[in-house]
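Aim 2, interim progress. The first record below pairs a target sequence with its structure tokens.
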Amino acid sequence: MQINSSATSRAFAEALVVNPYYAINIAPKLAEPHLATVTEQQWIEANRKLLAQIGDERYLRLLLDALKGEDVAAMHEKELAEIIAMEDSDRYRDA
């Protein structure tokens, strides 16, 4: 079996880049067992919408803050309120 070293190298690089472990210290409390309140698919869909609304850099910064264990809602209360307001106005416009 022939292994494509270019594809293997790319997959390895992607795995390194996508892992926030190399950029931050992840909060230990995020590794504790807990009851999930949404499915993975629900989380993906909600975050896909949020990403489209706020852009990639802002989204990634919020995600890193959350992974560090920071209270993202409190830290970014004004910004998150604006996002929710935008979503609500879109919902009423589409209704």
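The second target in this work package is listed in the same format:
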Amino acid sequence: MAEKTDNIICSICLNDFKQPKILDCKHSFCLICLEDYINKITTDNHFPCPLCRRDIIIPDGGVNEFEINYQLEAEDVSECDACKSGISSEFRCEDCQQYLCSTCKRCHANLTGTRNHVVVLYNKYSQKGNQDNPDQYNSSGDNPLPTETDFCSIHHDKIADYYCKPCTVGVCSRCFVENHNGHSFVDLLDETIRNEIKAELTTLKDSLETQITDFLNYSDSLKRTITDLNQSSKVSCRNVDRQVKKICSRIKKLGEDMKDKIHKSRQEELKKYTEKLEEMKILIEKLRVSVKCTENILADQSTVLWLNKIPLMKQEKQETSLQPLNLPIVTYTWFEEESICEDILLKQLGVLKNLDGPTFRSSFTVDEQEMLDTGINGYDYYIQGIPCCIRVERKKDDPSGDVYLGIYLCMDISEDSPIKSWKVKWSGKLVSRNGTHHIMDEGQNDEGSLYTSTDCNWGWEDFINWTIFADERKGFVDKDGIFSVQVTVKMIASVRSEN
């Protein structure tokens, strides 16, 4: 509840109220004080009341949309907001939300931009202080008090009897005869006509409210499609990064293989020389031993030893002379760099396509028993806020005995979903490593598939024969038993949930 001080002064500026606005918690504050306070602490269009800390939602039209506390406003007659002369106001413009003295009110009524504004007598309006209903009533509570626009535009103290259509003003009988004679008009005192006008305006209001609902639903679809586009772009970029990583990994592997060939060639050529070098070491060591032995014999001064050594030395010389000293023929490695062809790289990277709807892919591991018993679901991918997934099953045709791979698009439409039902066309593709993809498309079906909370699975139970699917030459399943399915979803129509 609001405290007593709340009815005396503004709790923010501690001064008399100026244009007091009342919050949902029934505390009131000056318009300017409230605007300054909200600008400083608002979060996600919410702010806490400065007094009780209750969470308050800011209206769509901003602070000005908070209701005026006419009871507080009546305690202090506001000065004229237009001339700022200190003169007390007698009128209030509901469109400008300004107080006017009688002089400024006349100027206000004659200006083209403000001529049709709703101006009320301030003393009568504030005395009533009705914050819930903008209609003003007299003391008996029977008939509405006329607002300023129901008075004659020339004689401000006379009730307007007629509304001049060409001039779009209300006038008294005298002004109508003198200045608007011959103009088409509406009798403002005819209650039947008043009711007809009010009914027409109410019908137009209801029609606009219907349009607002339609536009809100359309805006919601636009927002969800924007979300889908952002998500599709994000997934596509992630796919590019993954492919680039795979290409880089493959290129790095090829580079390592190339270096292995270089090292192998080096080892083979080095072997030719290292073997020869080892032979030379043994031969040289043998000759050194022979030379050392001969030196010892020469030092002994024995001619007999000399004569015995000479044949041995001749034989050894003859044997070593026959040793070839030609260098082995070798080859040297050289890596010739090629110019990088962007066309080839781009072809390896992939193809960028513009499709009719969101596209996503799921990978599965072949588990024949699980696929036969319950089927396997891929990961959830959100489209228009609805979780979707690819489902694969192993299906057996009873009459023929043939086994097929079944592929389905599943959507989880629940009571809390933004969409009650959804009609789509979609295509499924079994991805092959050698490019021979297997595709099923609903493109020829103008009706499409209708998804609801009860009918949430549509697809092909005989998408591809299991024998063809499992054939390694087709490239659908890799050596680890993994295969991938890709779907593209095109939205045709949807029915929005009322919540």
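Confidence is low (pLDDT under 50) at residues 1-7, 123-145. This observation will shape the mutagenesis plan for the next reporting period.
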